[in-house]
DNA sequence: CCTGGAACTTGAACGTGTTCAAAAACTCGC
DNA sequence: GCGAGTTTTTGAACACGTTCAAGTTCCAGG
């Protein structure tokens, strides 16, 4: 067993290098030419490996995107944690985290168009909505848990429980917008973030009013239903 | 000019037949085997034309979907108009139209998965969100105008103006859900329709309250912003 | 060192959507 | 019914994602 592990780690080094090389090459080319215009052959050629080798490390061209998610997410977290220490209100915390997300993704705007084509495709194994256990999604939601937990707002339990998920979905929506935003410096997106965060904040406040309890309950039940359904998509049967 | 038109119409007959033949063949095969598993070669072969000929009539495989939209939409309208004559309240009218939509699409559930992969893809010329001149979308929204106009509900002008669009988007959401719904007889979707229509109705009522005016205005401004942005995606620059 | 097996690498081959230049069919004015 | 022009039809060719059987490299155990 010890030997076995040693062997593995020993070999892993080379393998990991190749893997990283292919991924880096791919991401660079995606950034420069876009996803569609970057062929697997070109990636392999530029990375100095064979076509088949690229497929040894990445099951498909789409799987390169999964790796991209992971890497940008890590970066986003690194930016967000310090920012969260300085913000107290829910509004400020949410604003910071979402702005930083866009900041992180910025270099990839050109190729980001593909992200949602695949992310929104329910068939795709990369769809983060469908797969509850998707590590990127789990990690991503944890960040929004922090956003909610650390805040000083008073929010009813039922809503508070669902809020990280709702905010995560919200942030996906913002990214979707940003992908299509061709305004200079993404000003439009930043304006949208300001407006929607403000609106979300007001809605949360409104929904927290005891008056709103029945409507809130109804809406939350609906959210649950949608979540369940989204996750059922993966399993084959009924 | 007259000759020209005559010539055109004369030729159109044959051409239209071929076009229809290809489309029918394609839709049948999509229904039976699904979109991905139906190749252009197979469609051409089964229709008894050459591969190139299929591309003469349909610019791409995706464009066959556009034709599909059109044909099911026409059917949906034919079902809806009589139903709308019998329903007075907004809630009842909306419920009827959306249920009938699902009813219309039912035979295509198996292949519907592709619909949203392409419909949601902002790059695609078929994306109905991006192109506000898309004939299918125009026609589709007209139906929701009828839903609102014919109803007895009292709704503030600003909201009423935007409502057809909002309901159209809502109905797209329902379709998205239905596509992934694998429950027997799509019960889950019908339940969702009931719940969401109820919720939408309550929200409209709530939003119509003078108290809600500021929040409503803010939300509507946001909707406008989103619409504008979605439509800008098509134009190349800036 | 040698060997068996595992990890890694290769490139030819396949299936598919799409393009295109050339052929065929058709229309209309004469 | 002939010729010019237009529409329709053809199928070979291309590019790309993906697969796979076969080859190479690497390492622990003898």
Describe the overall structure.
The structure is a homodimer of 238-residue chains. Chain A is an all-alpha fold and 238 residues long. Helices cover 74% and strands 0% of the residues of chain A. Chain A has helices at residues 2-33, 40-47, 51-57, 61-86, 90-105, 113-119, 135-149, 157-180, 187-208, 213-232. In chain A, helix 2 crosses helix 3, helix 5 runs antiparallel to helix 7 (135-149) and helix 7 crosses helix 8. Chain A starts with a helix and ends in a 6-residue tail after the last helix. Chain A binds chain B through residues 113, 116-117, 120-123, 177, 179-184, 188, 191-192, 195-196, 198-199, 202-203, 206, 215, 218-219, 221-222, 225-226, 229-230, 232-233, 237-238, and chain B through 113, 116-117, 120-123, 177, 179-184, 188, 191-192, 195-196, 198-199, 202-203, 206, 215, 218-219, 221-222, 225-226, 229-230, 232-233, 237-238. Chain A binds a DNA duplex (30 and 30 nucleotides) through residues 3-4, 6-8, 10-11, 14-15, 18, 39-41, 49-53, 55-57, 60-61.
């Amino acid at each position: 067993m010890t030997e076995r592990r040693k062997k593995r780690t020993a070999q892993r080094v080379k393998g990991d290098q190749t893997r990283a090389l292919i991924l880096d090459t791919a991401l660079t080319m995606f950034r420069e030419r876009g996803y569609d215009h970057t062929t697997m052959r070109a990636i392999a050629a530029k990375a100095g490996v064979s076509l088949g080798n690229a497929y040894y490390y990445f099951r498909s061209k789409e799987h390169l995107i999964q790796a991209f998610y992971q890497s940008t997410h890590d970066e986003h977290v690194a930016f967000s944690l310090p920012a969260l220490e300085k913000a107290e209100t829910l509004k400020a915390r949410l604003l910071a985290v979402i702005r930083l997300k866009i900041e992180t993704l910025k270099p990839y705007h050109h190729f980001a168009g593909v992200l949602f084509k695949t992310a929104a495709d329910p068939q795709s194994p990369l769809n983060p909505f469908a797969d509850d256990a998707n590590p990127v999604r789990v990690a991503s939601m944890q960040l929004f848990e922090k956003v909610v937990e650390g805040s000083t707002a008073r929010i009813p339990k039922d809503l508070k429980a669902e809020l990280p998920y709702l905010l995560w979905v919200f942030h996906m929506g913002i990214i979707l917008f940003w992908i299509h935003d061709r305004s200079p410096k993404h000003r439009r997106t930043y304006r949208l973030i300001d407006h929607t965060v403000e609106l979300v904040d007001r809605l949360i406040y409104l929904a927290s009013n005891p008056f709103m309890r029945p409507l809130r309950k109804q809406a939350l039940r609906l959210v649950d239903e949608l979540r369940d359904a989204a996750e059922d998509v993966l399993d084959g049967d009924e």
